[in-house]
Structures are given as C-alpha cells and as structure tokens.
C-alpha cells in the first residue's frame, strides 16, 4: 500500500524534573488514527486519491529523574484506499506509529542531554499488542 506522509508535528512536549525523585510509573502511550474529511472544494481532488487521516501519539512518561508529557502527530494518506480506517492492517498502523515513537525518543534524548549535562536518556519502547 502506498502511503503519503506529512512531516511530524510536535503539538506539545513538556519536560520536568522533580525537586525530589519521582516515583517511576508505567508509561502511558496512546495512538489514535482519525479520518479526515474535505473542508472545501479544493480538498475534494486530494481526497479522491485515497483516505486521509491524522495519526496522533500522546505520551506520559514518568521516570525517577524526569517526566515527559506530550502529543505529536502527522497526516497520512492511504493512496487508492477507500475502506474504513479501522480496517487498515494493524502492522501498517504500527509501522506508522514507530516513526512517532522514534521522534519522542530523539526529543527526550536531546532534552535530557542538555538538562543533565551528560549523555541523554535513551527511552526503550516495546510492542504491546
């Protein structure tokens, strides 16, 4: 399946450090895929090429030394696909989500490197089916 992807958009990214250590909690990571609809007549041509969706990833990761909370997204178009969005193969959605998770990892690494003045923290995500 051909998939057109937009750039990744960071909607929010909040980093905080505690006065005393946080209690480490289980990270919360949620993905949503939202089908979009044409807004004006100019959009109709684009939507004739296939479904357009917004893929969102919200995260709340609290470790002992810091916490990151945020939301990132990207637009995707499934070319020549006109079925229901919830029918898209889970492996395809997982692959699209991996790019967003990589972005969260990069941002967290860079921010913790600057904040703690030592090598950044490498987040490790595992698939949870």
From TrEMBL:
SUPFAM superfamilies: SecB-like (SSF54611)
Gene3D superfamilies xrefs: SecB-like
Pfam family, one: DUF1149
Top-level lineage group: Bacteria
Protein name: DUF1149 family protein
Species in which this protein is naturally found: Brochothrix campestris FSL F6-1037
């Amino acid at each position: 399946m051909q998939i057109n992807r937009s750039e990744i958009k960071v909607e929010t990214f909040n980093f905080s450090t505690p006065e005393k250590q946080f209690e480490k909690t289980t990270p919360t990571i949620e993905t949503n895929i939202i089908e979009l609809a044409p807004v004006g007549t100019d959009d109709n041509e684009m939507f004739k090429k296939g479904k357009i969706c917004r893929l969102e990833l919200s995260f709340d990761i609290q470790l002992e030394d810091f916490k990151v909370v945020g939301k990132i997204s990207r637009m995707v178009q499934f070319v020549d696909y006109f079925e229901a969005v919830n029918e898209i193969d889970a492996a395809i959605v997982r692959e699209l989500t991996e790019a967003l998770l990589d972005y969260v990892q990069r941002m967290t690494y860079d921010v913790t490197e600057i904040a703690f003045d030592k090598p950044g923290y490498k987040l490790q995500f595992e698939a949870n089916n």
